[in-house]
Design brief:
Layout lengths: L2 H11 L4 E6 L3 E7 L8 H12 L10 E7 L1 H5 L6
Parallel strand pairs: 2-3
Antiparallel strand pairs: 1-2
Family: Belongs to the BolA/IbaG family.
InterPro entries: BolA (IPR002634), BolA-like_sf (IPR036065), BolA/IbaG_stress_morph_reg (IPR050961)
Protein name: BolA family transcriptional regulator
C-alpha cells in the first residue's frame, strides 16, 4: 500500500479538512483534521479512523498507524503541524 492509497481510504470514509499520510509501506503516520472529531475523546477519534480502514487494520496491510487527530479549531491553533 502507498501513502496515497491509505490517504484515499481515510478520505473516502471520513470528511477531512486536512489529511496528510506518510510512511514506509508498513509503518504510517497521519495528521487528520475533521469536524467529526468535535466533542470526541482521543480514543473515539482514533476508533473513527480505524473504522474507515476496516479489515486492513487486522491484516498486515496497515501494520502500524500513528495519528494526530484534530478538529479544525485545534488545527488552526497548531501551526507547528502544518
Amino acid at each position: 500500500m502507498t501513502a496515497e492509497e491509505l490517504q484515499s481510504l481515510i478520505a473516502a470514509g471520513l470528511p477531512c479538512q486536512h489529511l496528510r499520510v506518510e510512511g514506509d509501506g508498513r509503518h504510517w503516520s497521519a495528521v487528520i483534521v475533521s469536524a467529526e472529531f468535535e466533542g470526541k475523546r482521543l480514543i473515539q477519534r482514533h476508533q473513527r479512523v480505524y473504522a474507515t480502514l476496516g479489515a486492513r487494520m487486522h491484516t498486515d496491510e496497515v501494520h502500524a498507524l500513528s495519528m494526530k487527530t484534530l478538529t479544525p479549531a485545534e488545527w488552526a491553533a497548531s501551526p507547528d503541524l502544518h
